[in-house]
Amino acid sequence: MLDSKATKLRIGVLALQGDFAEHIHALERADQDVTALAVRYAEQLVGEQAVDALVIPGGESTAIAKLVDDGSDPIFDAIRSRGLAGMPIYGTCMGSIFLAREIEGSTQGRLALMDITVRRNAFGPQRKSFESEIEVAEFGAEPLPAVFIRAPIILKCGPQVKVMATLAEGIVMARQDNLLVTAFHPEIVDDNRVHRYFIDMVRESLKRDGRTNPAPETAQRPCDLARSAS
């Protein structure tokens, strides 16, 4: 068995659209033992060379839904399979929508891995983007700068979901086991505590599995992209 301390973590960032480059840079700034990779194909999520974790960045959720419906590459099958198997996945803004089990008033495709209900564009259009300081108990007393750009809000959480940060409008950061979501964009601020927290989640996952790369050789099950009945 390889020594996980001697091997760099391989964290993928879904690079089909959105601000994936910023997350790649943020991950590698946060920890010198991380190699961040742009992920575009299912083969990067299975087998011996698969990534240890995945970030789903901000972007346009309806655009991702169209890519899902295209079906030209089984990447979403692989993401959901790895997520169900325990791979850490972090969704920011659009990524949190894509991970959610329910999207208010929408039937668009989603991974439906996390027991949350989200509202798209909860704060209004892009011109109403703003920055706020939020409190995250896991990060200590110093507030976290959070940038909201056409951001969603988490309306409801299931019993297995831990709420980590809120605004008056609702929940903006939450975790469910191997899944982490934020409604804001930590990749565009200098504070790297969110990315460090996710990297720690990845290390915890590898330690728990007793190996440096827990990727399955093949997808475990077809991707049943849930669609809301609303």
Descriptive notes:
- By secondary structure, this protein is α/β, with parallel strands linked by helices.
- It has a single domain (4-120, 153-209), classed as Class I glutamine amidotransferase (GATase) domain (Rossmann fold), CATH 3.40.50.
- 23% of the residues lie in helices and 27% in strands.
- The chain has five helices and twelve strands.
- It has helices spanning 20-30, 61-70, 75-84, 94-99, 193-209, and strands at 9-14, 34-39, 53-56, 89-92, 100-103, 114-119, 130-134, 144-148, 153-157, 162-167, 170-176, 179-182.
- The strands form three sheets. A seven-stranded mixed β-sheet has the order 2-1-3-4-12-11-10. A three-stranded mixed β-sheet has the order 5-6-9. Strands 7-8 form a two-stranded antiparallel ribbon.
- Mean pLDDT is 86; it is low at 1-5 and 213-230.
Topology, element by element:
Blueprint: E1 9-14, H1 20-30, E2 34-39, E3 53-56, H2 61-70, H3 75-84, E4 89-92, H4 94-99, E5 100-103, E6 114-119, E7 130-134, E8 144-148, E9 153-157, E10 162-167, E11 170-176, E12 179-182, H5 193-209
Parallel strand pairs: 1-2, 1-3, 3-4, 4-12, 5-6
Antiparallel strand pairs: 6-9, 7-8, 10-11, 11-12
Strand order of the largest sheet: 2-1-3-4-12-11-10
CATH T-level fold name: Rossmann fold
Q: What would the principal axes of the Cα set say about the shape?
A: globular
Superfamily (CATH H level) name = Class I glutamine amidotransferase (GATase) domain
Counting structural domains, the number is: 1
In terms of DSSP E residues, the strand content is 25-35%
End-to-end separation in angstroms reads 48 Å
What are the secondary-structure elements, in order, as H or E?
EHEEHHEHEEEEEEEEH
Uncertain segments are 1-5, 213-230
Structural class: alpha/beta
Oligomeric description of these chains = single chain
What is the count of DSSP helices, taking H or I runs of 4+ residues?
A: 5
Please compute the radius of gyration using only Cα atoms.
Answer: 16 Å
Going by CATH, the architecture would be 3-Layer(aba) Sandwich
